[in-house]
Amino acid sequence: MVSDSGALLQALSSFNEAVGMPPSERLTNPASGVKIKLPMAMIPRRKTVTAVVGGVRVGSDAPVVVQSMTNTDTADIPSTVQQCAALARAGSELVRVTVNNEEAAAAVPRIVEELDKQGVRVPIIGDFHYNGHVLLTKYPECARDLAKYRINPGNSSIGRTGDSNFRTMIEVAVKYQKPVRIGVNWGSLDQALLTRMMDENSALAEPLDARDVTMEAMVVSALTSADLAQKFGLRPDQIILSAKVSGVQDLIDVYRALAARCNYPLHLGLTEAGMGAKGVVASSAAMGVVLQEGIGDTIRVSLTPAPGGDRTEEVRVAQQILQSMGIRSFTPQVTACPGCGRTTSTFFQEMAQQIQTYLREQMPTWKGRYVGVEEMKLAVMGCVVNGPGESKHANIGISLPGTFEEPKAPVYVDGRLFTTLKGDRIVAEFIGILDEYVDSHYAAREAQKEEVVARS
């Protein structure tokens, strides 16, 4: 008869082997005092070729990339540089700018130069519609300095006049060896293609629903354009595809269909996702499904900011989608209870907010100094019901007293009671414990480099 302890150790050993857990991270017996560390989600990715955008790899052998887009007038160089830098510092790994006129095209080299002077190393992508063939040829410095071109086949002459405008843009991309995102959007879908497919569908004995024909037209537009791009000289690993819609179920269906019929990297995102909670929830619901299926190699959350709102919010939402799903880690996570009648004080809510703000402010420094700190988990709980238990599951957790509970706050570190805080300096003392934990538990990057050199 195997003891409970023996059965647990045997199960942990089997799990370690099944997921290929590195020895340093293998799960061990909790009774030994070693905290269990679960791995990031083991979601099999759809296999793709890998495109390289200004040094950033996009494809199934690279992490899912977070990107964003400015909403400044690109010709306003100071404002665009400022917003590009803010987006990059928030964690956007690629930033797209509108290139809609000659002033914008002329501004691109100066924007890239100024970002470089500021030490902001983020690839800048040019978004072209209607006149991209003119701007890319008339402003060669713009074509040279952009890391990637986004081309919409719905407004770049595909299917008309010998595809000359589309061909011109692809030939410029080939000349400067730039990758291209062929971005189909249902708001600007090639109407000649859609009309032809609708006519063919209506002639069938059992016609498909118009919505299904539209989804298929988007897939056909993307794949046909990719075939043309290769015909005009682009390599498969210089092509990224997207098929943007604004409906959750539509995004799921169109990306499933597109993913099944090619091996190009795919850019995910709801177009015009909307404002506030609606945009966040819709983007999360839609992209969460396809990401769970291994579909998607770069994402953007197209939030509409409030007037004067913070554009970097879309970056944080995109990161949170990936981190909540266990796909990537960007910043330490804070678990906090929602509150109930047991927690009539708002102190735990205020503390959770203070801790979250502190983490966000510290991360640029921590990320440069410590390896793996972005995977840290904290808990700020409001009463005795779930507080101690949830705190034990975190790297560091605090269980604040609820209504009528004894005014003390036990702090747990790696699953064990570390200390109990009291008085009006609980937040400051907890932050002190947090700082000490980061400094003692996460290897310094310089030390890691020295260790690698020593081994080599």
In words, what does this structure look like?
The chain is of the alpha/beta class and 456 residues long. It has 15 helices and 17 strands. The chain has helices spanning 4-19, 77-90, 102-117, 132-138, 140-145, 164-176, 191-202, 210-231, 248-260, 276-292, 313-324, 347-369, 387-393, 426-441, 445-455, and strands at residues 51-53, 56-58, 65-69, 94-98, 124-128, 148-151, 180-185, 239-244, 267-268, 274-275, 298-299, 303-304, 333-336, 377-381, 396-399, 409-413, 416-421. The strands form four sheets. The protein has an eight-stranded parallel β-sheet. The chain has a five-stranded mixed β-sheet with strand order 13-14-15-16-17, with helices on both faces. The relative contact order is 0.08. Residues 19-38 and 450-456 have low confidence and may be disordered.
Largest sheet: 8 strands, parallel
**Structural shape:** globular
Distance between the termini: 48 Å
- Rg over CA atoms, rounded to whole Å, is 25 Å
**Fraction in helix:** 40-55%
Number of strands: 17
Strand percent estimate: 15-25%
Q: Which parts are unreliable, with pLDDT below 50 for 5 consecutive residues or more?
A: 19-38, 450-456
Mean pLDDT comes to 88
What structural class do you assign from the helix and strand content? alpha/beta
Number of helical segments? 15
Strand line-up across the major sheet: 8-7-6-5-4-3-11-9
